[in-house]
Amino acid sequence: MHPVETGFVLIYTSPNPNSINIAKSLLESEGIPCTVEGAITNQVMSGYIGTTWIKLFVPVSEAYRSGAILEGAGFTPEPAEADGEKRDGAGNATGTARLGRQITLILIAILLILGLLGLYTYFVQ
Questions:
Q1: Which string of b and e fits 47-85 if b means at least 16 CB within 10 Å?
Q2: Alpha-carbon distance 121 to 125, whole Å?
Q3: pLDDT tens-digit profile of 46-56?
Q4: Please, are residues 48 and 42 in contact by the beta-carbon 8 Å criterion?
Q5: CA separation for the pair 110, 11 (Å, rounded)
Q6: Distance between CA atoms of 108 and 84, rounded to whole angstroms?
Q7: φ and ψ at 92, to 5 degrees?
Q8: What are 67-102's pLDDT values in tens digits?
Q9: Do 46 and 22 meet the contact criterion of CB atoms below 8 Å apart?
Q10: 84: DSSP letter
Q11: Where are the alpha helices (DSSP H) in 6-125?
């Protein structure tokens, strides 16, 4: 049975098993039960790091406290699923904030490429 069907919410995702294990240990040390999904798949696909996301779930009643604990430890928790955000297959928020960050990164990359091309043509002539 999927964790969401049993009253758990997605609190953190990462392709790095060590990051998930640290986050899980932090939460469990505070008495918050956790469940992990995708760890076995990640181990099988270990040659393809970054392609398989591991998901950490906590009970709905502990979502706010879990988020605060993870933020305090330097992790970036997922927004609560009850916030109405649409999510992709890895459980990542696909809202406008994420889209805005992606567009900003693309624009920066384009500006860097154009700058490098300008420098190249300046020094070649």
A1: eeeeebbbbbbbbeebbeebbebbeeeebebbbbbeeeb
A2: 6
A3: 555 445 678 89
A4: no
A5: 33
A6: 30
A7: -85, 140
A8: 899 988 888 877 654 344 454 444 455 555 556 677
A9: no
A10: -
A11: 17-29, 39-44, 63-72, 96-124
Q: In the chain, what is the straight-line distance between the N-terminal and C-terminal CA atoms, in Å? A: 66
- Structure tokens given for 38: 């995708």
Structure tokens at 43: 């181990």
Q: What's the whole-model pTM score?
A: 0.54
CB atoms within 10 A of CB 91: 21
Q: Which structure tokens are listed for 39?
A: 């760890």
Distance CA 82, CA 6 (A): 14
C-alpha 96/C-alpha 86 separation (Å) is 10
Q: Which tokens go with 2?
A: 């999927």
Amino acid at 9: V
